[in-house]
């Protein structure tokens, strides 16, 4: 929540722009708000507080979701599906100075009924050349397995995946062939990781499933 100089109330225009009625009148702006928020601008997503309040979601999931929407981590967008508030559409920007810089990667995240006693289920939907991610998008990350703790959050998981893009670990691979490539010729492996799946351009669209339409190409 943004603060004014006089207290904790939102500025009038901010309240208007963040109201569901405003977006119902101008639906194309909902995509604009998602895109601005994805790139770090302090503009709101469509307000889904009422949807969450009317659901049977545990309070913890509601609080985590509200924070993800109001305070997105840099380079990460995560928003729940309107059909299932336990299912999140995720977009992660390739970190700077990493093999994936310039790429935009789509993931799906699902919170099982046992959450937070059980880890979220996460996988890449965008193809990626990475020793710790297989062809099905499954991720080799300890906090998604035996190192999971109820003290961790969705935000922690997404930041850890973002960090994995910055520092691939071929010593604990999910893809043996890619890990071998990384170890025998890291420069070539890094170049391979960069070339095929780099984002050529990102455009605002009316798509319902994610904030951006991504076009990938092989260089």
TrEMBL record:
Q: What InterPro entries does the entry give?
A: UBC (IPR000608), UBQ-conjugating_AS (IPR023313), UBQ-conjugating_enzyme/RWD (IPR016135)
The residues responsible for catalysis, as annotated, are: 140
* Record-level Gene Ontology MF annotations: ATP binding; ubiquitin conjugating enzyme activity
Recorded source organism is: Theobroma cacao (Cacao)
Q: Where is the UBC core domain?
A: 56-203
- Family the entry assigns: Belongs to the ubiquitin-conjugating enzyme family.
Q: Does the keyword Membrane apply?
A: yes
Give the record's keywords alphabetically: ATP-binding, Membrane, Nucleotide-binding, Transferase, Transmembrane, Transmembrane helix, Ubl conjugation pathway
Q: Which residues cross the membrane?
A: 12-29
Query: What is the name listed in the Swiss-Prot or TrEMBL entry for this protein?
Result: Ubiquitin-conjugating enzyme 36 isoform 2
Please indicate if the UniProt record lists DNA-binding as a keyword: no
């Amino acid at each position: 929540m943004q603060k004014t100089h006089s207290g904790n109330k939102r500025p009038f225009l901010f309240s208007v722009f963040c109201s569901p009625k405003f977006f119902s009148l101008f639906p194309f702006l909902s995509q604009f708000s998602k895109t601005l928020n994805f790139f770090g601008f302090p503009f709101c997503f469509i307000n889904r507080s009422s949807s969450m309040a009317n659901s049977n979601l545990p309070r913890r999931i509601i609080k985590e979701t509200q924070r993800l929407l109001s305070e997105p981590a840099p380079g990460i967008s995560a928003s729940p599906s309107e059909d299932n508030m336990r299912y999140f559409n995720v977009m992660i920007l390739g970190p700077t100075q990493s093999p994936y810089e310039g790429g935009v990667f789509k993931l799906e995240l699902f919170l099982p009924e046992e959450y937070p006693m059980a880890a979220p289920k996460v996988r890449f939907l965008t193809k990626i050349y990475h020793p710790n991610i297989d062809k099905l998008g499954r991720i080799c990350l300890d906090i998604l397995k035996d190192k999971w703790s109820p003290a961790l959050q969705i935000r922690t998981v997404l930041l850890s995946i973002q960090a994995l893009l910055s520092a691939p670990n071929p010593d604990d691979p999910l893809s043996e062939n890619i890990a071998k490539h990384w170890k025998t010729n890291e420069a070539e492996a890094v170049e391979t990781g960069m070339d095929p799946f780099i984002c050529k351009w990102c455009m605002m669209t009316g798509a319902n499933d994610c904030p951006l339409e991504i076009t990938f190409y092989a260089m």
